[in-house]
Design brief:
Number of helices: 10
Shape: globular
Mean pLDDT: 83
Helix content: 40-55%
Largest sheet: 3 strands, parallel
Distance between the termini: 42 Å
Number of strands: 5
Strand order of the largest sheet: 1-2-3
Amino acid sequence: MKHGDKTAAHIMHKYLAPISKYFMTFSQPNANLQEHYLLFEYLALQLPVNTLVLSIVFDDMRETGIRPSLVEAFNNQVVNSRLHKTRIGRKMISLQGNQNSIENDFEALENTFQEQSEKYLNYKLGKFLKIWELRPTFRGRILTNLYFLRNWIFSITPSSVRKIIPGRYRLNLLSLNEILNTSVEQGIKVLIYIVPIRDDVKIPYDMSQYVKFKSEIQTISKKSGVRYANLESLVPAELWGVKPNTTFDSELELDFMHFQAGGHQLLADKLHEELKALWSEDLDHGF
């Protein structure tokens, strides 16, 4: 990203503001569909959502679990009740229950002698040992170096072939179905799209699984009556680039996930086109 570059989300907001539509983006690194499901159930209660634009990424179907920044949504009674009505929702709640028990243990320390004494000791150690204040920084560096070490040991690079992890894939597909069920139930229009990926070199996916994944997403979209767009080939090779190495090597690596500003402009233009077609369907039916 260079100074002055705009993301597709920024461009989309500018496109839609003149027609009184507010394009709001919730973007989280490597978010899986379980997280999208939880976030959508929460946001649909808080905001007058008219249309959901949902990007689907093959890589993210390999992820699972709910990140700490989203767990507060479980405490919303309406969200919790709605999740309890679905199989995947109950699974998410049961897994989150284990995490909550840990959090509750820490909450039990509030205003206790242990909490006050630990604060006092941290203050004293921080005053005399500069290194003590840098604990979060060191922790982050250690985790990052462990990540690099893992990649170096197993020769993992962005070009390494990624395969479906069956259990996680199934949970994410269940989550997608429930997102669409909620959308239909609440009269929310949906645009699902397969994200762009650079194709001037070999795609780092098991191709048979990737083809099956795209077919399944299209079938689910059609079954739910939502708009589907495959944008994997939208961004040409010259608008992709490289990124810092994810091992201890100093060489740059190919980036299969992020493209330059020109790619964001292409994505915004295409999404705008797809949304106009989606909204025109109401006019075609006299709504």
